[in-house]
Write the structure tokens for this entry.
Amino acid sequence: MSAKKTDLIDRYLNAVKFWLPGKQQKDILAELAEDLQSQVEERESALGHPLEEEELVALLKRRGSPMRVASGYIPEHRLMIPAMLPIYWLVLKIVLLWVLAPLFAIVFIGPVFNSGQPGAALLQFFGQAFRTVFFVIGIVTTVFALMDRYHAQWIDKWDPRKLPRVPPAHQPMQWYNDFAGFAFGFAAAVFWGVTMWQRGSFTFAAGWSVVLSPIWARLYWFILLLTVARALVDLYCFVRRGWTRGQSWSRLVLDVAGMILAFVAFKAGNWVDVTFANKTPAETAQFVSMINNMIRFSLILAVLVPIFDVVKQIRLLFRAKNGQSAQILTVS
Amino acid sequence: MHTNGTNSEQFENLRLELRRGCLAVAVLLQLRTELYGYAIRKALTDQGLAIDENTLYPLLRRLENQGLLVSQWREEDKRNKRFYHLSPVGEEVLASLLAEWRQMNSALERILAAPVDPTAA
């Protein structure tokens, strides 16, 4: 074989060597070299002439890239056994959707709206959000990898008698939620209806008063109606179990109506004014600004948070439409 | 014939799964006689079971690490070659694998021969 062709094979073997596990490199390469030599000889015998450079290149290319060849010798590693994947995904979803997403909405979105430079604040938000998400994914994955390494056997320690019972159509937790929703909704409706009725301002004993923006008078009946409707829907769900489609539709409509109301209120831009008997105008302005910022933040939450419930209700409606039941049915 | 891309991919995945176990058995069977890597591949190909070099050599290494094969370097035709053959443990495991394969094969044949009831849910 010519020096040029030997050089090609040497370069190929050297490239494979780079990816091989250290201890076995010599042994594997010797075997690969022998195999390549046998292939070259067989090919030359079939062609009836020594291999041309192009023919040798084709033979090496057919063999595969050095990394691919080496990959076969690298022991397979896995982060976790496939049996752990469902619970891994579940935990990841819970952490990302139900913990981090609301946290971002509360902690980061508010400052973006309040910032004098929303573009820079938004960029900062995305930076923080990505860092946090990747950090959390890394932590969850590491925890599961460690569980797999040291305690994976708990997956196989189970007993059918210890599995949780199939819940009724409505889970008990939902029962309490409906009752609490009705109780708080009713209290909120009474509070709103009584304290805000034809009220333009509140005067307090310490010599300060809060003057409400006209937007609250304009939205008075809408907010009262929405609060009462929410309380009634919760009451109905509490009394009549299994009212799933109607419940989803009602909650969907109420969520959207609530988001619209919050948005209309948000657009007003200035919600209260405060006057003090014993504070300078600068101190008063600072206090007013703080109160309005708190209301702005609450209204942003009132627009954003119901999105989660809207998505949930739409998914429930789709499931109901496709005939899927939350119940596990025993096939007899 | 698999013309659809997805079907073709599914077929390929299933084929690989099916082959993976069979190849190990075939190599163990072939190594009841001592052979070196290139000769194993030739022998299997000649008997209708083509095997890629990048599959064969790592497989040989795994089987040896599991104690089913033993190997030694020896000179033949003025070249150093690594010869493999079945270890005593490998012989036992091969016998069990063949019994398993025969059982599975006969079960598949029975299932294949059984009449299909199109009304059965």
Residues 13 and 97 of chain B are 23 Å apart (CA to CA). Chain B touches chain A at residues 36-38, 53-55, 57-58, 61, 73, 79-82 (CB under 8 Å). The longest strand of chain B covers residues 69-76.
